[in-house]
Amino acid sequence: MDLQAIGNNVIVKLSQKGTERVSSGGIIIPDTIENRETCGEIVSIGNTVTDDIKSGDEIRFKKRTGLEFAQNNENYVIILNKDILCTIN
User: Fold this and answer.
1) What is the C-alpha to C-alpha distance for residues 52 and 23, in angstroms, rounded to an integer?
2) 61-85 pLDDT, tens digit each
3) Buried-most residue among 9, 12, 47, 48 (CB within 10 A)?
């Protein structure tokens, strides 16, 4: 099943990098506790997105944005194109 974004939405396959950190005392702090940025790969772009992004681009965006879901053992998020902070070269 192919995923196709609609309107000004962007579908991003979430990266597994940096999902938690360990404090100096050895306590594991999950990413859900911190308001950190997240990165992933653009899978689909809606038809009204006019920014200079394309499928396959690696991007960073705010963690607490969009709708997360899983499909075929992969984690995705649907975000608005305005929530993209930058591309990763």
Assistant:
1) 37
2) 987 889 999 999 899 999 999 999 9
3) 12
